Amino acid sequence: MRVVIAEDTVLLREGLAGLLEDAGHEVVGKAGDADALLALVGEHAPDLAVVDVRMPPDYDDEGLRAAAEIRRAH
User: How far apart are CA 9 and CA 37, in angstroms?
Assistant: First the structure.
């Protein structure tokens, strides 16, 4: 399974990527904010996106809005 991870905390993002890769999944992209997430999904067309709900710059609902946009567009 091809996966994109969106998490602003680097340690958590890298740890999750390692766990997924150890389980046999291909992590095709890692993003620290919603804009980078949208770009990665457009570029790689992953099977799954793991998205943090609260992301920079406002730590409100940027990840949630990006996930909704991904769902509409892909």
Answer: 14
Supply the DSSP symbol for 24.
T
What's the pLDDT tens digit per position in 48-62? 999 999 999 999 999
Mean pLDDT of the chain: 97
pTM of the model: 0.93
Asked whether the beta carbons of 25 and 17 are under 8 A apart, the reply is: no
User: 8: which DSSP letter?
Assistant: S
Question: What is the C-alpha to C-alpha distance for residues 74 and 67, in angstroms, rounded to an integer?
Answer: 10
CA angle 47, 6, 25 (to 5 degrees): 40
Coil vs helix vs strand at 35? helix
